[in-house]
Every structure is written in C-alpha cells, then in structure tokens.
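ZP: hey, is the glutamic acid complex queued? I don't see it on the tracker
AM: it wasn't, my bad. submitting now with these inputs:
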Amino acid sequence: MNMSMKAEPSFRESVDLMFNRAVALMDLPPGLEEKIRVCNSTYTVRFGVRLRGQMHTFTGYRSVHSEHMEPVKGGIRFASSVHQDEVEALAALMTYKCALVEAPFGGSKGGLRIDPRQYDEHELEQITRRFAYELAKRDLIHPSQNVPAPDMGTGEREMAWIADQYARMNTTDINARACVTGKPLNAGGIAGRVEATGRGVQYALREFFRDPQDMAKAGLTGSLDGKRVIVQGLGNVGYHAAKFLVEEDGAVVIGIIERDGALFNPQGLDVEAVRNWIVGRGGVTGFPDAAHTAEGSVVMEEECDILIPAALEGVINLSNAERIKAPLIIEAANGPVTAGADDILRQKGTVIIPDMYANAGGVTVSYFEWVKNLSHIRFGRMQRRQEEARHQLVIDELERLSADTGIGWTLSPNFKQKYLRGADELELVRSGLDDTMRIAYQSMREVWHENDRVDDLRTAAYLVAIGKVASSYRAKGL
Ligand code: GLU
C-alpha cells in the first residue's frame, strides 16, 4: 500500500498509537491500561485583558494527564497553534517522561493560544499574570499540586511573572517559589536550567555512543567526533544541543532549519553565529557562508549521521519519512515524528532516540530546582568548602610524602587546580542530569535488547514508563 494514501494521525492519536503498541506487549490488569492512557482533566479558561484601549480575550488550557504522583509537572506553551488535543498529548508525554527519568511527578501541560511576538513586554506580563491568576486560583499552579515550567514561547521571564503572581496570591506560603520552575536565578531558579534540555540531548547522545552494539544498530561507528548533524529548529533546545555537541564533542553541524528556510554547509556551520543572526534579524535568510534554501524542510532529507528535530511536533510525517536519510534521529522536540512516520522509519532501520527520554533534561533539572526551592538552600552551599578542605589535606599529604621520601613527585598545577575545587551548584546539576540520563538510557536499552518483541527504543521507553506508572497505581491499591 502506498504510505502517502494513509491518513496522518493527529499528535494525540500518535501518542495513543505508540502507547497502545507498547501496552499490547504488557500484561496489565484489566482496565488499568485505559486508566493510564486517558487524560484525567483539562481546564479551559477564557479571560479578558484590557490592552491598547480595548478588551482582548485569550484562551488557555491546563491539562492534567496523570496524578499517580503529585505535584503534576509540565511546561506552559505560548503559541497561536495551541489547542486542547495538543496540550493533552503533551501532558501524556510528561507523565511518561517523568516516570522514565524518575522525576517524582505526574504529567501535566499548559498552553495559551497567543502569538507572543504580537505583544510588547508589558502586555505579555499582564496576559501572563492574568493566566497565572486563573490557574492558581484553581490550584493548577501550586507547589504541591501542579508545577509549570517553560515550553515553546515561554522562558525565564514568564516563569518569574508566574512565581510572583502566585506569591502575591499566597502571601504566607513559605514554599511559594516551588510553584513553578525555570525561573531566573535571582528569583529562585537553579544554575543550568536554561540549557538543561539541550544538555540532556548531549548526554543522551554520549550515552548512546558509549555502546558499539547500539551504534551498530544505526550503522554508526566511532564517537561523536566528526559526526554530521542536522538540527531542525535553533530555539533554546536546538541551539544548546548543537552548541554543546560542536564545542565539546567535535560534531559538525551541517544543516540548520528554521522558520524562514534552511542553511546548509557540508564544512560545518558556526552555531553561535547563526544563533546571533537569528536573534538580530528574525531568521536565517541572508546568513553568509552557507547555502540558503527557502523550502527548509528538504534539508531534513540530506545525508547526515544524526538528525535532531528540536522544534514542533509532526515535522517528520508520512509525507517525508521515506526520504529521511539520517540513520539516527534524536527527538529533542516533543512528538516530532508521527506514529505513521515512526512505522516507516522503523522498517527502514532508522534508530530513533525518543522524545520522552531525549528531551527529559528539562524536567530533570526542573525537579532539582523544585527540591532547591523546598529546601530553601542552594546546592553545594554546605559541602563545597568542606570538600575543598579535605582535598587540600590529601594534596598536602602527598606533597609531604614526596618530599620526605625523596621521591620528588610534583603534582601538575592543572590537576591540583581541578582536584581542589569543590563542586558548585552548576557542577552538581550537571552531575545529577548526567546520572539521570545514563540510568534512564540503560533502563530503556535493557528492554530494547532483551525483549524479543521490542525492536525500537520508543516502545522500550513506553514499556519502562508505563510499568513505573502501573506500579505506582498498584502501590496505592488501585
Ligand atoms: N516543557 C518541558 C518539557 O516538555 C519542561 C517541563 C518541566 O520542566 O516541567 O519537558
């Protein structure tokens, strides 16, 4: 059958199809499968804000997919394309994502139907605060019930407004700051949250490339060094993932796809320069040192080693999946590959590192931020100098022994400097994130390699995540 004749499932249908594929391989008690799959609730709010002399009505959503653990967690998206089905699909992915990386949350997601570029900062603040007010008064923003975070179209600035709005409404709540994550450092945020999702993509790839057997499944060998990468979407996630892969792992970014077309240069693109160009001019058009294609999506079909879709859902679908040449796709975005495209790619032998794992770095560091807010102390504050003092003892003793015994060892200044430094918050966050990404990968990998009926990482990830949600339900006696 011609694949293009098949109907493309919606994002939400895609998530359900992938879920169903996995549960068919499980032995869940009757009824539990449906209980886990369905979205528990979606609150829709329409509110008015007086702007430019007239009333403007906005529509927002907050979906709670699963409350098997509370608070529930998930970002708030600002985009004109936001709709209920999308928010519900994203909330479901949050449930599985949190379960997979062992962040102790249920899944939720919010969305506001708005094009943020149409409003100035002051207007956006009024709109965000009003939306936050509507959600907070129903406990849909709450440190122990529902903790939002950034997503597409939102960032630190919006999270600071939300946190402040909640604090104004709950003046005696000592844990008010834990009502939202992704805040700026000076408003209760944590070091490393902005780049966390991109960093997580890097750690995920590093873990994949540690295993020759896994690499072989994608027909790849060697290390990340020199691997050709194409990135679709150079927003917060795509930019950080590309930057770290180039600067720290030696990968070469040969293609970048943006709203207004794509850049391609087989010799490698300067990620920082492209990002600055986009920030300054609103797009990639006119960027020197690269070929520009107005029809950006065709660049996703170029030969490369790793394709990183890092923007919207559904960009790899029935219309282009057959032509995607990358042997390895890592889903930095949520839902970039539709269920139909997933079937085609799986048959072709393409290895897909699935969204619920690949982009879990964001929520993982959100978890650390929430813990930091609840404990009211920066990570490392108590231990750092003590750690340094103990390391100094070792160094002093080594140097004394070396002098006393006449061995004459000298420790290299570089080693001494590195060894003596106690870990600060950023280092601890990175260590916690790396550990999380490694452990979650291994849990998926085990199922991928050991279950004969599982031939892809996505199904493996669903199996692990659903298994964890199911055991939470069982522990509650449900
Ligand atoms: N919006 C991000 C995601 O899709 C982060 C969610 C969070 O930190 O709660 O995973």
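AM: back. The chain has three domains: 41-189, 196-361, 382-410.
ZP: great, adding it to the tracker
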